[in-house]
Amino acid sequence: MTMETHLLRTFVAVARGGSFSRAARDLGYTQSAISQHIAALEHDLGTALLTRRPVAPTRAGERLLEHAGPLLTRLDAARADLARLTAAPTGRVVLGLTPLSLTVEVAAAVHRGTELRVLGREDVLTEVATGSLDLGLVDGMAAPSDPLSLPDVGPLTTTVVAERPLAVAVPVTHPLAGRTARLPELADAGWIDAPDVAIPLERLRKSASTDGFRSRLRYTGTDVRGLLGLVAAGQGLALLPADVLDGVGTLSLSSPRVVHRTELVHGDPGEGAALAAALTGQRPEL
């Protein structure tokens, strides 16, 4: 059993994209080569990994996908980490941010000439690990002073940047607007699933120890104002930092005690060391 890296990359591309032809375009192979890669991997593992019509992972394929994605990210992270050791200075720093981590304080700390890229949470982590970003800012929900629970994508350093209150965004006419409630009491309300902007619903389920918090619709954008517009129109609720709730009603949480936390993530910051220090309020090392 070898599970060669290029075969795993092909499998992940097909499984996530749901198409052999799309994977061929993305990876620069012919469709015939993609089919051969999948067949070789299935032969090596002794089981079918994909159904063909429609193209979707089998049960074994789903299990392999759980392992293959993080494994390939770690391999790319190792390659990027070694490349940074010998890379010549570029004079440019690339900072990736989640939508809610770009606050006034962060904007004031950014140095002239920095390139900013607004991305989803998982994309920021992956691109920092694989070297596409020098630094990243990610956000999420945590107990006060507790670190964020982040996936292991490589040997990254995390430092707290800020913590601020959370509140539930509701329509201004909502009967609970301006009131206080416990999070589990809202499990049966209609929610908007906006994993790259609001606190993900899966995180709410875990915090409230319930299988509730079902979504009325899914929002895959990174535009906070767009999400607030959906809330204002009555499409569902969303948990966000209290200071961004404009044009909607607010509902405070009495329990659990949670905050919106932003953390800086990086490997060797290199040319981004001064910006990293500015973002975390530390003095850069000389």
Automatic annotation (TrEMBL):
Keyword DNA-binding applies: yes
Family from the record: Belongs to the LysR transcriptional regulatory family.
Domain HTH lysR-type intervals: 3-58
InterPro entries assigned: LysR_HTH_N (IPR000847), LysR_subst-bd (IPR005119), WH-like_DNA-bd_sf (IPR036388), WH_DNA-bd_sf (IPR036390)
Keywords on record: DNA-binding, Transcription, Transcription regulation
Any one Pfam family match given in the protein's UniProt record, by short name: HTH_1
Protein name, per record: LysR family transcriptional regulator
Top-rank taxon: Bacteria
A GO term for molecular function: DNA-binding transcription factor activity
